[in-house]
Write a structure and sequence with these properties.
With 211 residues, the protein is of the alpha/beta class. Helices cover 29% and strands 19% of the residues.
Length: 211
């Protein structure tokens, strides 16, 4: 069964603006967010401590804003690992365990369909109505009527990377399917058509005068 276009990012990729814009450009409909748990912040992103349900966790605004910006359903998955499950020989290394849970589901309007679940192992699920995306986009579409392609452009290189590239000759640039490029080509086409029409009119005029 086709469930739509699914994408995903991990952890602090949600604070990388261009990565989020690229995902939206690729037509994402359902987004999977992966986090190592839930925490509270002490002055900066590096100052974390486990705090299940803390409103000061940057996950909370990140996933809701992602859904709102991209009009996608966000399935946010946060790790849960109780202290009792940590092996004795790893307790020292994992003394900063942040795995308090927090998995949840957010609608394209940035609202919770399923609230975050903490301190328990469970499956968070919901039935999604993809028509909600169309309603959200009708009001705000960052790649549609709210876009400013005349000012902003993002180029995404989707060519596969190789450890060693032995191909010779010039590598062709990736095909640009952005709205700005399409608009540019359309304007060039209109100019070319106008020039041809002008030339044909001039030829017709000369023909009549020559008679």
């Amino acid at each position: 069964m086709d469930i739509g276009c699914v994408g995903g990012l991990i952890c602090y990729e949600y604070h990388m603006t261009l990565a989020k814009a690229a995902m939206a450009m690729l037509g994402e409909e359902i987004h999977c967010a992966v986090w190592p748990g839930w925490w509270s912040l002490d002055r900066h992103l590096g100052g974390k401590r486990q705090d299940a349900g803390s409103p000061d966790c940057d996950i909370l605004p990140a996933i809701r804003e992602y859904a709102l910006e991209t009009q996608t359903f966000v399935i946010s998955c946060s790790w849960y690992l109780p202290e009792s499950e940590i092996p004795d020989d790893l307790k020292e290394e994992m003394r900063y365990n942040l795995a308090a849970g927090g998995s949840c589901i957010v609608s394209p309007a940035g609202l919770f369909i399923k609230e975050p679940v903490f301190e328990q192992e469970t499956i968070v699920w919901a039935e999604l109505d993809l028509s909600e995306r169309r309603v959200a986009k009708a009001y705000f579409d960052a790649l549609g009527h709210y876009a400013r392609w005349n000012v902003f452009q993002l180029h995404v290189d989707r060519r596969p990377l190789e450890p060693a590239n032995r191909r010779e000759g010039k590598i062709s640039p990736p095909v640009d399917y952005s709205a700005a490029r399409i608009q540019e080509l359309a304007e060039r086409y209109e100019i070319a058509v106008a020039k041809i029409e002008s030339l044909l009119n001039a030829l017709e005029f000369n023909r009549k005068v020559g008679k």
